[in-house]
Every structure is written in C-alpha cells, then in structure tokens.
Amino acid sequence: MPSDVQSPSGPTVIVLEGELQDARVREVWEDLVGRARSAGSGSVVVDATGLREVSGTGLLLLAELRRTVVWAGGTIEVRGLSADQASLVERAVGHKPPEPREQDSHFVSDVGETAFRMLDELADTVRFVGGAAIDLAYALRHPKSLRWRDLLRVMGQSGIDSMPVTCLLSGIVGFIIAYQMMPALDRYGAADQTPTIMGFAIIRELGPLITAIILAGRSGSAFAAEIGTMKVTEEVNALTTMGLNPERFLVTPRVLAVAITTPLLSVFASFAGVLGGWLPMVARDMSLELYLQGVRNSIDQVDFLQGVFKAFVFAIVIGGIGCRSGLQTQVGPGAVGASTTRAVVSGIVAIIILDGVLVALFHAIGI
Amino acid sequence: MLTTAASADTVIEAKDLSVGYGGHAVLTGINFTVSPGEVFVIGGGSGCGKSTLMKAMITLLPPVSGTLRIAGHDLVTGGDEAVQQVRRSIGVMYQGGALFGGLTVLENVRLAMEEQGLRTWSEMNSLALSLLAMVDLDEHCNKMPSALSGGMQKRAAVARALAMNPRIVFLDEPSAGLDPISSAEFDQMVVRLARSTGRTFVVVTHELPSIFTIADRMVVLGGAKKTQLAIGSPKELLDSGPPDVRRFLARQPEERAPQGATS
To answer: Does the pTM of the predicted model rise above 0.95?
Structure first.
C-alpha cells in the first residue's frame, strides 16, 4: 500500500510496500504520479525497501515517477531496488522529447505549392519521355546497343500476353456502345447507320484508347515495379557505377517493345470492338458481311492510320511514365507500391489528355 | 583542368571533405589518403556516415566541399568528365550483392564487358569464368542469382566488380547477413584478392572481426558532429587511439549518466 509523508522543509517521501504487480500498478498509477507532480521542482524520495515483488509494469511506474520529477526540474531518489532494476529505471528517463512543431500550413499556399509541384512533375515527365524517344531513335540507328533479350521478353508480355484481355474488353465495349446507340438512332430511323458510327468510334478512338488503358494497367505498372525493385536492391546503382546508363539499359528496350506491340494490339482491339458492335445487330437481321461493309465504307486509310498512330504515341508515353516512376522509387516498404500506383494513374491521365490534344490537332490539320 | 594526376603512392585522397545530401553536409572534416594495394576500411558505429562517404566515393553522391580525388580525378571540381573517369576506375560490391535477377551469374559478370564491346564472345566468357573461379563460384556460373546463398551472391558481386579491371574495389558491408564462417571465408577471400591482384580495396564495415582480419589501415567515423575520429591500423587505434575509437574497437558500450538522479 503506498503512503507518503511530507514535511514543509523536507522531501516528499513515497513509501511502497508489498507487491507492485500489473493490477496494483493500474490502481495506484494516477495517485502516485499525481503526488510526484505535486512535488514540483522539489525533491522526492521513493522508498521501495518494503516491496517484495516488482513486475515490469511496476518498473515502468517507477520510471514514470522519475521522469515526472526530473522533467519538472526536481530530484528523485529511489531506494530499495536491486542494481539492475535501478539501472533500468534511471535509463528510462531519457531526454524530454521536443515539442511537436506546429504545421505552418495555409489552404491557399498549399494549393499553390501543390500546383507548382504538379507543374514541375509534368515538366520532368515531358523531359523524361522526350529523352526516352531520343534514346529510342538512337537504338534504332544502332541496333547493337539494344538489349534484345529484354526487348523480346517485354514484347511477349505486353503484346501476346495482353491480347486476350484487350480484345475481350474492346469487344464488350463495342457491344455496349452499339446496344446503347440503337434506341437513340431508331428515333430518327437511322439504326442502319450503326456500323458507320462504330467504325469511327472504335477504329479512330476507342480501340487505341482501350489498348492504352490496358497497357497502363499491365505493362506500365510492371515496368514501375520491376525497375522500382531494382532501385531498392541497388541494381540501378550498380548499373550506374559500372558506367552503364540506366535509362538506355532499362528504359529503351521496354519503351521500344511497347511501341512495337501496342499499335498491332490496337488493330486487333479495334477489330474485336467492331465485331462486338455487330452482336446487337444480329437481332435486326443484319448480316456480318453487310455490317462490315458499312464499317468499311465509313472509314478510310487515314482513319485507320490515325488510330495506329495514336496507339504508338500512347505506348511511348505509358512506357516512359512507367519506367520513370520505377526510377523515382524511394526507400521504404511501400515505395514500390507507390511507384506502381503512380505509373498507372499518371499513365491513364496522360493518355486521355493526350488523346484530347491529338483529336484537336487532327481536326485542325483536317484529317 | 578537369583531372589531376594522382601521386604515385595515392589512389584516393580526401582533404577537408564534407559529404551529404542536397548540398547539406552530414559528415565533415574527412582527411585521408589510400595507397595502391592497400585494404582500407571505413568504420564506425551505425549512422556515423560510412555509407554516405562511400556513396560520394563511388560517384552516387556529389561531395559538398573539400577535395575528393579518386584514381587521380577530383570529384568536387572535375564535373561529369571526372565522374565518368572514376566509374572506369572502380568496381563496387553492394551490400545485398545487387546482381541482376534476370541474368545468370556468368552473364552478370560478363555484362559490363559486353556493353564495352571490345572483346570477343569467347574472351569474355573465359575472363568471366576465371573471375568466378577466383571467388570459387565457377561451378555455379549458369545459375540464376536467386538460386545462390547470400554469401555466394556477394562473392559473385565481387567477381562482377573485378570484371572491368578496376584500380579500386569498394565493398559495402560485406559481412552483413552472413554467418560467422561465411563472413570469415569472405574476409580471407578479400585478403587473398588484395594480395594477389595488387588492387586497392576500400571496405565499409563495422564488423570488428572483419576489420582486424582485412584492414591495413582504417578511418573511424563518428562523434556528435559526425566527423573523422581517427585514422591508422586497427591495432594502433586499439592501443593508442582516442577513447571513443578504442571503445569502438574494444566493443565497449558508452556508459550513460543518469539524469536528475540521487540514487
């Protein structure tokens, strides 16, 4: 049972007797700490001579008493502990932690800082993707400088392996668009114009866009994760100190691989989308031959090449952003995950913005 | 002038060197020289700046101020040209090995030679195999790094570091994660390679058995202000170094004075 004796001129004396186990510590904690606090900058004596048993939590209580007195500028003497116990209690005092700094934040300045940071980020990304395109051109002029094995591996992963899911999604999107459009066209008696609209929508726009979104999800994230892991395990540093350029070594084969496979994949995706658009037409007794004839009449070579060109540009941007996210990976357990997320989100945002720019550009030059 | 010829008896020279991040010095007052063929250890407790100093020496971190001359090229004033020259003069073994996971052990060792493109395929293979034999890994040459133990990966990384015939080989925490026997074998290998090839080895470590086995000389970093505490052979420093250094080498923890205590 704790008790205390205080004389006007002497120290506050806290006497501890019996046992100081977990349950008892909970009971007396507030009381004892309060007494130590009320001693202010005076001196406190804790007499533990009569304690038979002290648990780890009991030692923490003694440490808390010590901390309370020392930080208030007082002195404390703990009597009756073994040397090891006394050493632990003394050590637990440590240093007073610094006061947490007040966050100097303001909504307007936060918005401004974020905007500037995003602009810097955008400028860096444009620079990096531009650099990747230049490295690509160099690699095409000097094929021996290419890591062919990496190139073929990434081509397989981003092309052949992506084919089923890309075609499936594109086909379903084609089906949905045709299905949703038919009632609207029916109102004007123009349901037979569905193949025309599908040709424009899928081949010029949605085929390349769906391919690019899947590319961002599969390859962009894979590039960020692969290169990010290499960064964490110091493989990128190893390349640097071996005098090899990590950008050329890691980025060029990946960007070139997707630049080759994505336009091809986009052609297949467009075809699957067009076919998906035919399914609702079956109910209108439109034959596949007639449907495809309608699609063919609605587009020309320029429309087709426009879609392929878009896919090519999207591939370079997504590949570049994925690799850049990987190379920017910081340290820590969540770093690679953060890079992967950044690669996918930035990639998708970038291609949709870029798509808008390209549409306006093609319109402006009349194609 | 971008580069300066090194004096014949110095491959590394640090003078009033400060290193750190983003232009902010975290380690200051570094002064030492390393001679050709020497095994030089950078030692000190955890967080004393060993790895930061090594990063500056292997060109991954620009020095903040002072002089840092590696193989005759000053990394403070020499700019990109000096950085490229230094990279041609060094080989680095990173703490975890940092072998390329998609390449076999042989391909890892051959990689830099391939990229340089100056040798025939058979020459490169032969050289890579010889290097792997020097670290007792020739029979594992066709394995992927993931199939090797931690110690074997580190030895393969040493073979890769030697592939471009560097003047200086840097080893980052070679004993980290190794059992005592593997660690001792690694130390013996370092001594053997240093003596037989005449190359300079700079080893960052805080493992005392390794330090006493391999080091010709060492610099000890530490202190509240993170600086160079002493330089000399481990034996000299243990016998007559500053108290902090003697305590580090004798593995004696610092006594911590209690605060506000009367008991």
So the answer is: no
Domain assignment of residue B134, yes or no: no
CB contact under 8 A, A93 and B259: yes
- Please give the Cα distance from A263 to A312 (Å, whole number): 5
ipTM associated with this complex = 0.88
Token digits for A262? 């994505």
Phi, psi of A269, rounded to the nearest 5 degrees: -65, -40
- Count of domains observed in chain B: 1
**Which residue pairs, CB below 8 angstroms and at least 24 apart, start in A64-69?**
A64/A29, A64/A33, A65/A14, A65/A32, A65/A33, A65/A36, A66/A90, A66/A92, A66/A93, A66/B260, A66/B261, A67/A92, A67/A93, A67/A94, A68/A33, A68/A36, A68/A37, A69/A36, A69/A39, A69/A44, A69/B260
- The percent of residues above 70 in pLDDT, for chain A, comes to 95
Q: Does A21 touch chain B (CB under 8 A)?
A: no
pLDDT at B263 over 60: no
* Per-residue DSSP letter, A76: E
- What does the pLDDT read at residue A3? 54
List, for chain A, all residue ranges whose pLDDT scores fall below the cut of 50: none
Cβ–Cβ gap B112/A243 under 8 Å: yes
Within a domain: residue B124?
no
With an 8 Å Cβ cutoff, is A41 touching chain B? no
**Is B208 inside a domain boundary?**
yes
Q: What are phi and psi of A106, to 5 degrees?
A: -140, 140
Residue of B nearest to A95 (CA): B259
A3-91 — its CATH code? Answer: 3.30.750.24
Q: What is the pLDDT of residues A219-249, one digit of tens each?
A: 999 999 999 999 999 999 999 999 998 888 8
Closest residue of chain B to A86, computed from CA coordinates: B263
Which pLDDT value is given to residue B167?
A: 94
B225–A contact, CB cutoff 8 A? no
Q: Does some domain include residue B156?
A: no
Whether the CB of A185 is below 8 Å from some CB of chain B: the reply is: no
Put simply, whether B146 touches A (Cβ < 8 Å) is no
CA-to-CA distance for B50 and B249, rounded, in angstroms? Answer: 16
The answer to whether the beta carbons of residues A315 and A259 sit under 8 Å apart is: yes
* Per-domain residue ranges of chain A: 3-91, 131-364
For residue B29, give the CATH number of its domain.
3.40.50.300
Å between B262 CA and nearest CA of chain A: 5
Domain that holds residue B210: 12-98+165-249
C-alpha B120/C-alpha A27 separation (Å) is 81
